[in-house]
Amino acid sequence: MTAIVLLGLFLPALFWLPLFAWATIMLGLSLVCLREWAGFLQFNRLQTTVYLAISTLVGLILLFGLVHLGFHWLFYQSLSVFVLATVFWLLIVPVALYFNTFFKQAFLNACIGGGLMLSLWMALVVAKAVNPYVLLVIISTIWLADSAAYFAGKQFGRHKLAPAISPGKTWEGVLGALAAVTGYAGILYGSGWVATGWIFPGMWLITIVGVYGDLFESFFKRRANLKDSGQFLPGHGGLLDRVDGVVPALPVGLCLMFWFHFCLQAYSF
Length: 269
Prior knowledge:
- Helix 3 runs antiparallel to helix 4 and helix 5 crosses helix 10.
- The chain is mainly α.
- The radius of gyration is 18 Å and the shape is globular.
C-alpha cells in the first residue's frame, strides 16, 4: 500500500507540478534523507539540529537562486556537483566497499552526506526541467533492477556479493538486475524512444552504481548497528532505504546524458 501511494503521488508531481513546487518538495525529502544519514553518524539531538539547519539554509539559498536567477544558473552550478558525485561513486566507493572500510571522522562523513543529498536534489530538479521522462527512466531503471535482483537472488542466489556488508545480496541477483535492465533498454531502443545504442552501457552503469549505493548505505547502517535508516515510510523503513540506489544513479545518469549530448553525438549509433 505504501508503494502504491508513493507511485500515485510521484507521477502526477513529476509531470504536473511547477518546477519551483517540485524543487521545494524534493528539498524537504532530501532533508529527511539527511536526517536519517545523521542517524548513521550517531549525532545527538543538538548536532542533528545544527546539521539540518545548515543544510536547510543551503537549500533555501539554492531555491532563491532558482527563482531569481533562473534554471540555467542552477543548471551550471549542478554540473560540477554531478561530476564530483560521479567520481565519488565510480572511484572512491568501490575501493571503500572492497576493503569494507571508510572514513570514521563524523564531520567528514557529515560533509559527504550533505554533498550526496545536494547532488540528489540537484539531479531531481535538473532532470525534471530538462525532460521529466529522463528522470522517470533513470528511477524506473533502479526500481526494476532492485526488483529483479531480489527475485533472482531469492531464486538462484548462491554466491554472496558482499557478505560482510549485506549478507542477503548475491552475484546472481546482480546478474538478474543487469538482465532485466538490458531488456528494458532493448524496449526503449527498439521502440524508438531512445535513438542511440549507448542506452545499453549507460543503463548497465546506472544499475551498477545503484548497487554501490545500496551497499554503501548498508555499510553505514551496519557500522551504526541499525536495521533501517528510519521509520518514515510505514512498512518500508526509512526514506533513505528506498532511495539508496537512486542517490548515485541520478547524478551519474545525468553526467552520462550530458557527456553523450556534448561529446558523443558524432559517434552515436
